[in-house]
Design brief:
The protein is α+β, with helices and mostly antiparallel strands and about 160 residues long. The chain contains 4 helices and 6 strands; from the N terminus they run αβααββαβββ. Helix 2 runs antiparallel to helix 3 and helix 3 runs antiparallel to helix 4. It is globular, with a radius of gyration of 16 Å. The protein starts with a helix and ends with a strand.
Length: about 160
């Protein structure tokens, strides 16, 4: 097989990574590192442009969703990152079936702003119950102008 054919085929293969976390100290930092290494792979393997802002946002979204999983759900959580066209889909599963609800903005409130932040910086956000627990998915555009307020969809 020639190199051009190999490169065309590798462009068709999905770029994704998954990791399991136990809810222990350090999981959030490990999740951000997973996002950094994934984005480096996206840049290198696909030659896909990833703005610095988009890289920061992907790490922020992973951090916020994983923090909520570690804080509110007993047991393990799973993080999946996948390149989907011009965006990265960040999916976090945890064992708590309660769907997250963004609270009304309150600058005086200390804490509990994570979902507000995620919804403000993502193209889309959804949370759905699974047979066990829930799955939250957020899409972050790789170009700066693609990110913005997400519409929430819960099922």
């Amino acid at each position: 097989m020639d190199e051009a054919a190999h490169n065309d085929r590798s462009r068709d293969e999905p770029v994704r990574v998954s990791a399991e976390y136990e809810g222990s100290v350090g999981d959030i930092a490990r999740g951000r590192e997973l996002a950094r290494s994934f984005l480096a792979r996206v840049r290198a393997a696909r030659g896909t442009a990833v703005s610095d802002r988009a890289a920061d946002l992907v790490q922020l979204v992973v951090s916020e969703l994983l923090t909520n999983a570690c804080k509110y759900a007993p047991g393990p959580s799973l993080v999946d990152l996948e390149l989907a066209g011009d965006r990265v889909e960040v999916t976090v599963w945890d064992s708590d079936p309660a769907l997250p609800v963004a609270e009304t903005a309150d600058p005086g409130r200390i804490g509990r702003h994570g979902l507000e932040i995620v919804m403000a910086v993502c193209q889309s956000f959804e949370a759905c119950r699974e047979p066990v627990g829930k799955r939250m998915r957020a899409a972050v555009g790789l170009a700066d102008e693609r990110n913005g307020p997400a519409m929430s969809h819960a099922s």
